[in-house]
């Protein structure tokens, strides 16, 4: 049993033993294990999965028979196997089912349709400023309408579930956003309930940075070796998502990783969270734009997009303020590294669009001199090169992950 549990952990399925394990649960675990391996490996053979999981070939064959019947897995031509023998390749079926991913940001939201490999098939983006009102309930209604339109536009597709990534601090246990700086009223809304009332699908809510971390973990496929992976989201807010052994680390109520609200100057300005001198107050794209506008004093405030253009033209104020924001992010990252000792940190979201090279340089310079060399040598800091939006994709992947955890509940009606 122990070695099986180790294997389960290897694909991130944390089964907590507090009760005996019945045959049905063993079957559930085996199904999940196979789907997770198949997703990580891509196209492979049943024998390969049997070798990876230690399950008997007959067990793999039986489970795959169900999966093929349910439309979760498909056969895809021949692979050359041992001793020149050919065997049939299998992979996660990307034709049969769909999930919806939604990402709410401070200034816009996105809705996408995904296949079961996590690939985005169609997406749309709506600016909150274009809506009649920026009241949270209005934004939710608009998001619901966009989701309904996506479902209608793809009426032939079997949509199984929906994942929603939201800014935070997000109280996972209560399905509520604790606070979105710069906005009000979100903590009164049960977002999951609003969606479930309107759309007849299981809905999963996740903090946006957690969704981003999850998407990167998926994207690494077989190169992800259960290490601690942190996604540092430097956007309209600052947050981080932590993945450990293939699972999102939530903390007691789901707010772990709120790096935007650590103090970097206790004499600094009061933040809406109650703390003083929060990292987010110095490094988010909203604060960066504010700092540039304060110094340049234009007749009309520059948007973040306009500031990027000014930066590219060589504007010194934009450049100086950016370097400073990135340097300060480095201090936040030092805290993350000292707390979690991650193997991989990926930095993403809209602040990297200004100048990823300069950001990398400033962050690495700060971090290298702020942690002991033994730790520095073992952490890989990377700038995001993700195709698409990892937080939107991650929202969908969280829904898919749950389908893989208990496929029979989604498929067998
Ligand atoms: Zn704060």
User: CATH-wise, what's the superfamily of the largest domain?
Assistant: ATPase, nucleotide binding domain
CATH architecture level-2 label of the largest domain: 2-Layer Sandwich
User: How many structural domains?
Assistant: 3
Q: What's the β-strand tally?
A: 15
In this structure, how is the largest beta sheet organized? 5 strands, mixed
In whole angstroms, how far apart are the ends? 32 Å
* Backbone structural class: alpha/beta
What is the CATH fold-level name of the largest domain? Nucleotidyltransferase, domain 5
Distinct compounds present: zinc ion
Mean pLDDT: 91
**Poorly predicted runs:** 1-7, 10-14
Rg, nearest Å: 23 Å
Strand order of the largest sheet: 6-5-4-7-10
